[in-house]
Amino acid sequence: HSVFFKPEDSEDLYVGVTDFVYKFDMDHLQFIHEPCRNVVTVIEKFQDNLLVCAANRLKPQCWVLSPSGNIQRKGRGISPSIYSQNSLSLFADGDLYAAAPLEVDGSLLQFRRLAGNRNNVWMHDSWVSEPTFISASLVKRADDPDNEKIYFFFRERNSYHNPEADPWISRVARVCKVDEGGPKGFFQNKWTSFLKSRLICGFPEESLYFNHLQDIYVVHAENWHETRVYALFTSSWNFTAVCVYSIGMIEKIFENSSFRGYDQDIPRPRPGTCVKDSKSLPWGTISIVRDHPEMTNWVHSIHHTAPFYISSHNYTKIVVDTVQAADQREYNILLLATGKSLLFDSHCFST
Hints:
Blueprint (H helix, E strand, L loop, with lengths): L2 E3 L7 E5 L2 E5 L4 E5 L6 E7 L2 E6 L6 E6 L2 E6 L13 E5 L2 E5 L11 E5 L16 E8 L9 E9 L10 E9 L18 E4 L3 E2 L4 E2 L2 E8 L8 E7 L5 E7 H10 L26 H9 L17 E3 L3 E10 L5 E9 L3 E8 L2
Antiparallel strand pairs: 1-2, 2-3, 3-4, 5-6, 6-7, 7-8, 9-10, 10-11, 12-13, 13-14, 14-15, 16-17, 18-19, 19-20, 20-21, 22-23, 23-24
């Protein structure tokens, strides 16, 4: 088991393994910390320092590594108790977001804001069913920072129990960066802006879908509408597909779709709207987020009628690299990895 962290503003690469965190640069290998025979599960930049978390023999523990010394903090909700359990973490604008089970048995798994400059906030228990969290990303809006959102991607148990239906559904969800939770006594410290929608990859005209989301890679653009999400899916017939989405298209669903299971007038402000003082939101708006956070409409890929790429290889990881070619044009290259080896596809494309 290993975890990797590459700071955007540095050429260093941090690698967390059992017992050690290593720091790599161009010239040498440096041992920087030994968390007492632990399996390292999280490495993140945290307020100009390095946050390292480990399973710690079923009692998750974190360390903030700084030049002035190492500070211990509780790791519950940031690191899983067992390294193989599902988890993810994101440090964005001074805040730490994470998804890790609160219990040793893997239960109470949800997406939370756990540390930083804002209030700790978590999810309502009924919003997800047996989730597997894949990725999370902050999409910046230079001209409208108060409307910036954290998008996270996961798959969950299908609540529709038709024997012919796939048991899993892939999702995109988002919360507002400025969300501080609801008013005291009603939804206090719970997301007031959480919404989710089904992420579709396949052949809609044939009702044939790749439903098992495996990995996500986000290519940010100066115009947030053009930020691209490259999603890797597998299917029940052992094929892999890549579908591409834009944040602009995703936001149109969240801003315009009706709410599944809700057929009355939609209150104002619309549920999911980012407001500076979420604690002042009216009960009608919060109650829809609480009881009907799923969008009726689905998020389709920018190619809509078919996946962008299909392969018979069993890929599990995706990275997209932007390069400038001899013709001075920029091309995106898909890097796809299986569980055993890294395979480079010769197909490159311009966007």
